[in-house]
Amino acid sequence: MKDNIYIQEIEKFNDEISIWELIDRHVKVIWWIGLFLPLFLLFGFSIPFVICKNYWFYSILLVLATGYAFFIVRCDCVGKKRKRIIQQQYPYAIQGETDLYGRIIPKIQKQKLTELINSRLVLNKDNLSFLIESLKSKKDENKYLYTVTNVAITFFLSAILVLFTRYLDFYSTIEEFGQIAKMIIAILLPSLVLAIYIDKTIIKEYVLTKERKQNRIIRTLENIYLEISNE
Question: Are residues 60 and 117 located together in one domain of the fold?
């Protein structure tokens, strides 16, 4: 008899089927350093030339850094290294397959998630369908809605509206009102911009990262479902 399992536990399996956990952590740190250190050094050495306004040498270093970055991407250095790790750790996944991100890695994720769940839950179509729908429903509930931005804009517009509709009750002259209005706007406007910036660059990225992780486990469960359906 299998133990009960909860949706929260399924969600925790997400980290265990990430590319980092399955593959990249097997790559030695020295390899990552050797790959990316030249890029950081080129950018680092270019900074003094900017400070000294020697834009000729800065441009040369920038071109070299861009060229090296293009070389890393064009030669698919990370992808080739990942394939070598897969050949060592998961030889079953790479046999007859060439599509690293479309076939090979999803096959490893599917096998890993099957092993994690199978000891706790009978993997049949009904259970998988329930898990997929539950995770999709939770993902929709956590959808990014720009809450901080909306609140900040609402507060800013409300403050401006109150300021302009009630100015006669608080200020005796237009000049006095103008000075106070400029001061309030000078305080509120940067605060509004900062709130929007934090919302879009930090909060949004955090929410979207969680959403991508949920998409990963949903897709993996769907792949398991398809495999069971074809048996």
Answer: yes
| CA-closest candidate to residue 213, choices 17, 8, 7, 4 | 17
| Statement to judge: residues 128 and 110 lie in one domain | no
> Domain total for the chain?
2
Whether 66 and 156 share a structural domain: no
Residue that the structure tokens 């309030």 belong to: 184
CA distance 129 to 139: 15
Name residue, tokens 């861009």: 66
Containing domain of residue 183, as a range? 123-231
Residues 115 and 143 in one domain: no
- Is 27 a residue whose pLDDT tops 70? yes
pTM of the entire structure? 0.68
Of all residues in the chain, the percent with pLDDT exceeding 90 is: 21
Q: Which of 121, 147, 177 is the last residue of a domain?
A: 121
* Separation CA 74–CA 103 (nearest Å): 21
State the residue for tokens 């999803």. 106
Q: Is 40 helix (H, G, I), strand (E, B) or coil?
A: helix
Domain presence at residue 2: no
Which of 99, 121, 143 delimits the end of a domain?
A: 121
| C-alpha–C-alpha distance, residues 16 and 4, integer Å | 20
Give the whole-angstrom CA distance, residue 95 versus residue 38. Answer: 34
Q: What is the pLDDT of residue 24?
A: 93
pLDDT in tens, 177-193: 777 777 877 778 888 88
Residue with tokens 């949706």: 7
Side-chain half-sphere exposure of 129, counting CA atoms within 13 A: 5
